[in-house]
């Protein structure tokens, strides 16, 4: 296991690039499927609600999904944290906010991505390349706004799919 895995480390997360993607630019099949699912559940509403989302429909992706409560302009609390998602501290973030990550560069990036979905009321998808403990790590994150009243964003459904990951940090 690389030095620093599972603990705070100066070798933690280092962003190389982050590209915002439109639906037509998404290359990952699972993220495309999730986006299409969100659109179907939205139907005639501005936004789908959490009650519109059926985990059974997403059973192939459950370990790669999060559900977050929107608590304020930049305050996002994980209600559910996907068991197969890797983060710099390898922590289960259920019950924690995005700013509770030990690696603050990573925390700020995640918070920024989620805020884009809340601010626009539209899916926010990013292709991310970073170094994690000095090793290249690439993945796609997509945040989908949800609204109990179908209008005001109060939750997020987030999917992450790896493109490449060092085997030492695989979950």
N→C terminal distance: 12 Å
Structural class: alpha+beta
Question: What percent of residues adopt helix (DSSP H or I)?
Answer: 10-25%
Order of SSEs, N→C? EHEEHEEE
Mean pLDDT: 86
Strand content: 25-35%
Unreliable residue stretches: 1-9
User: What is the number of beta strands?
Assistant: 6
Can you list the strand order of the major beta sheet? 1-4-5-6-2-3
Shape call = globular
Main sheet: strands, sense, barrel: 6 strands, antiparallel
Gyration radius over CA: 15 Å
What is the overall number of helices?
Answer: 2
Describe the model.
The chain is of the alpha+beta class. Helices cover 18% and strands 32% of the residues. It is globular, with a radius of gyration of 15 Å. The chain has 2 helices and 6 strands, in the order βαββαβββ. Residues 1-9 have low confidence and may be disordered.
């Amino acid at each position: 296991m690389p030095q620093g895995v599972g603990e705070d480390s100066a070798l933690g997360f280092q962003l190389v690039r982050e590209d915002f993607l439109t639906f037509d630019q998404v290359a990952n099949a699972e993220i495309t499927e999730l986006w299409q699912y969100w659109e179907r559940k939205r139907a005639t509403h501005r936004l789908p609600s959490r009650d519109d989302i059926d985990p059974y429909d997403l059973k192939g992706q459950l370990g790669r999904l999060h559900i977050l409560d929107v608590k304020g302009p930049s305050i996002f609390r994980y209600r559910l944290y996907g068991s197969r998602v890797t983060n710099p501290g390898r922590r289960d973030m259920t019950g924690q906010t995005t700013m509770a990550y030990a690696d603050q560069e990573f925390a700020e990036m995640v918070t920024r991505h989620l805020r884009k979905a809340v601010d626009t009321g539209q899916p926010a998808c990013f292709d991310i390349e970073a170094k994690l403990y000095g090793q290249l790590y690439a993945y796609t994150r997509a945040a989908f706004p949800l609204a109990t009243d179908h209008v005001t964003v109060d939750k997020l459904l987030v999917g992450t799919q790896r493109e490449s990951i060092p085997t030492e940090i695989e979950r």
